[in-house]
Design goal:
Blueprint (H helix, E strand, L loop, with lengths): L13 H9 L2 H22 L4 H4 L8 H17 L4 H44 L6 H12 L1 H10 L5 H10 L4 H11 L1 H12 L7 H30 L1
Amino acid sequence: MLDPVPAARPAPGLAVRCTRALLSPWSRFSLLVAVLLGAAATMLLLEPQRLLATGWPAQLNGGALAVVLFGVAYGVCTVAFVPRPLLNLAAGALFGAQAGLAAALAGTVLGAGVSFGLGRVLGQDALRTLLRGRWLKAADGQLSRHGFRSMLALRLFPGVPFAAANYCAAVSRMGYPPFLVATGLGSIPNTAAYVVAGSEATSPTSPAFLAAMGFIVLTGLGAAVVAWRKRHRLAAE
């Protein structure tokens, strides 16, 4: 007897095909690009850097609520690529050294966490297929194997842009908790220097302002040295 011919599988319906297309790695990556471009365009229109000149809205001046709202706004702005030094200076100018540092650090961790989550969910599957260059593979391996230590160094010596470090970590296999802890701890010194500089901006000859600016210059030079050494190490690997 002839074996029965297996029945052909029915073709997936239109809804199934559309769902697969929308959930594909490159579709999710396209969504990530669209979200980031939209956020950046919104920030360009709103011009949050005006806080340095005009200050916080009068109805929100003072109190813990203002600090919390600023921290949330800070996090959103960093996702939209607003430079953190400007936000740190604004935090110091608006709230002083202590409250400004608390708001800036909270916003830093919040923005980094949101960026990491977006990159991991929407971009990792697509971007990992592009890791073919020697340097890219070496950097990915460094973050994947020594994520906490590498991210801590990147935050302490901020030679790599904040957003770039967030998305590089998201594409790697680095864990979420080590990323957040390293970001919070590593961001303290540089963030504090900018916040203190902002709080003392009206007294540019004060010891606190001069010390803060000196620290910023030294960490910038340190970042250049670390980047130079890391470049040669990655090339060797």
